[in-house]
Design goal:
By secondary structure, this protein is α/β, with parallel strands linked by helices. The protein contains 15 helices and 13 strands. The relative contact order is 0.12.
């Protein structure tokens, strides 16, 4: 798939799809599993040609979005769907670092990613660009919320018809954040794994482009940009340690793939990077397999407030396990109470309001530090993948109430004195 330059196409460096299990190769079409062994398919690139064509300077001269890395993404279009996704802040988290006893902690903050405030905008931008190239006019997805938001928004921008499928019990903010873009929304009475099975049947019968089913090999490549950006934002260096949430496991494996690709084409010096993952205790099939030393992931039935990472049968779970082990990382889980505490800790120390997936990641970061699994000297990057405004239900009863006062100075002074007293006591709602 190399060559061609015209007004609508650009040089592409992806060559084929390859089964991660048996190695069978396929043309880069809308397929996601191997017809011989049912293993997942992954996009392959001509890295020698990439190395000859791409430099740090060519990347730095690109747009302020994920498309500055277009040669590393599986698209042929000279005009990909660019809604300003990517290049989110890498925040030096000094106050959180001091609280935890770390010296070099960074937050990769995709809670402010565009256009829908989660990392899903990265993968959907790539998937819908590829969907358009493959001739799809209707796009769809099975989603725990963030993906539905992103697919609906970017489809609207691109003028594609859109139908999304979600579990019926999603947070109100995520349902509203999808409906506003005008797609058809199917709220399925079941958990995510049941939604996903239904979508596989629909994909086979309606011929739509499902971003995380028949377009999954292309969609998942968008997560690599979280690895590329961290390297560039650290001054073209790899971190020592990363901590990221685990749902299907795809994000985790693709960040690692992004690191390795930049090493292999000579854009960054090689060194070991430890990769650690975070799950919610109420849906922790990968963490359980890690703790028990298993090389397989047994499905579970989700029961957690962290709905965006509540995938009981994770498609890339075994590959996430493999990466955590071979990089000397770790995988751990947090309770719902610890997740809420993690959300509050990040907000109070760094001014970043994350959703439950981010709370899970911060809670597990804290556990890994306390158990000695993160060296205080390591350059550690924590991935925050979604915005807290979408999951307000998780914390609304845990953060107190405003002080209600009369429009008089005396009322304010009494309230201020009372609030300073309450800082030393457990919070209680009060009318002054």
């Amino acid at each position: 798939m190399t060559a061609t330059l015209s007004s609508t196409t650009a040089t592409a460096y992806f060559t084929h799809l390859k089964c991660k299990e048996c190695g069978a190769e396929y043309e880069p079409q809308a397929i996601h599993v191997c017809e011989y062994c049912f293993g997942p398919l992954e996009v392959k690139y001509d890295l020698s040609q990439l190395a000859a064509a791409v430099t740090r300077s060519t990347i730095e001269a690109g747009p302020k979005s994920i498309w500055r890395y277009r040669p590393f993404l599986p698209v042929t279009s000279a005009n990909p769907i660019d809604v300003g996704t990517g290049m989110t802040p890498l925040v030096k988290a000094q106050r959180l670092a001091r609280r935890l006893g770390l010296k070099h902690l960074y937050i990769k903050n995709d809670a402010v990613n565009m256009p829908t405030l989660s990392f899903k905008d990265r993968v959907v931008s790539v998937a819908l660009t590829r969907a358009r190239e493959l001739g799809f006019t209707t796009v769809s997805c099975a989603s725990t919320g963030n993906l539905a938001n992103s697919t609906a928004a970017i489809a609207a921008h691109a003028g594609l018809d859109c139908c999304v499928f979600i579990p019926a019990d999603l947070e109100a903010g995520k349902v509203l954040g999808t409906l506003i873009y005008g797609p058809t929304v199917m709220a399925v009475e079941g958990n995510y794994d049941q939604v996903n099975r239904l979508c596989s049947e629909v994909a086979n019968t309606h011929g739509w482009g499902f971003v995380n089913i028949n377009l999954r090999p292309y969609y998942s490549e968008g997560s690599k940009t979280l690895g590329y950006e961290v390297i560039e934002q650290l001054g073209w260096q790899l971190p020592d340690h990363i901590v990221a949430p685990l749902a299907s496991g795809s994000l985790f494996t693709k960040i690692y793939k992004g690191f390795r690709e930049f090493v292999e084409v000579g854009l960054v010096a090689d060194k070991p990077v430890r990769c650690s993952g975070a799950q919610a205790m109420g849906c922790s099939p990968i963490a359980q397999a890690y703790a028990e030393g298993r090389d397989f992931v047994a499905p579970v039935k989700p029961n957690t407030i962290a709905k965006s990472i509540a995938i009981g049968n994770p498609a890339d779970g075994v590959y996430a396990l493999e990466i955590a082990r071979k990089t000397n990382g770790a995988i751990a889980a947090a309770t719902d109470e610890e997740i809420v505490a993690g959300i509050k800790l990040l907000a109070e120390t760094e001014g970043i309001f994350t959703e439950t997936a981010g709370g899970t990641t911060i809670a597990v970061l804290k556990k890994l530090v306390e158990s000695g699994k993160i060296d205080p000297e390591e350059v550690t990057v924590v991935y925050i993948t979604g915005n807290g405004l979408k999951t307000q239900e998780a914390v609304q009863n845990e953060i107190g109430q405003p002080l209600t006062i009369e429009p008089k100075l005396a009322s304010f002074e009494r309230a201020l004195e009372r609030s300073r007293t309450l800082e030393r006591l457990d919070w209680q709602p009060v009318l002054v």
